[in-house]
Amino acid sequence: MKQPPFETGMDLGGWRLFWAHLEVEAADTTVLTARRTEVAAAARRRFADTAAISGDPVAAALRTLFRAAGCDPTRYRPASEALLRRLAKGGDLPAIFPLVDLNNCLSAALAVPCCVMVEGSFKPPLTWRSGVEGESYESLRGPFNLAGKPVLFDPEGPLDTPITGNVRVKVEAVTRKAWLVAYMPASELDLETAGNTLDRLAEGTGITAEWK
Hints:
About 35% of the residues lie in helices and about 25% in strands. By secondary structure, the chain is of the alpha+beta class. It has one domain (about 10-210): Phenylalanyl-tRNA Synthetase, Chain B, domain 3 (3-Layer(bba) Sandwich), CATH 3.50.40.10. It is globular, with a radius of gyration of 16 Å. The N and C termini lie close together (about 5 Å).
């Protein structure tokens, strides 16, 4: 698979988008539970408290990229930072759906926002740019204003922002095939690191991950 697998206009510099195609064959909930526990424990070792997160090179680079897109990362945190803060406070990675669980594990392991989108819920070409006034979508938390946020678009409109997901591409319990995208600072992470991490996390879960 080429990276990116879709024609993508990168209007925002400094980012690297990692893509993978996921398919649930026979999800092993026991392995997924163990993987979530393992990833949460590793995150707590990496970040002893919430103050340690902002000093991490990956988190710091993400904040810089958010500001360059016009977004205050202290007001609108990257989804990964919000996740890591919960883990640093002693929280766990909850069981949702297998595809979402794997996505959250990768987000915590890489310390970057990740999203899973139902296969067929979007079409290329894609564009990665800042949202403008009047652009919004129905997020998983309700209506969300996209102005000044980093946003992924397709010809029909906004798909995702690395702050909160879009109901348009939402994965459900019955979803078997999806695309995962990780929003990475190019200065800190490469495709091989992301792919190898995903392979390790997916091993034994009953979810196949294709990225190369």
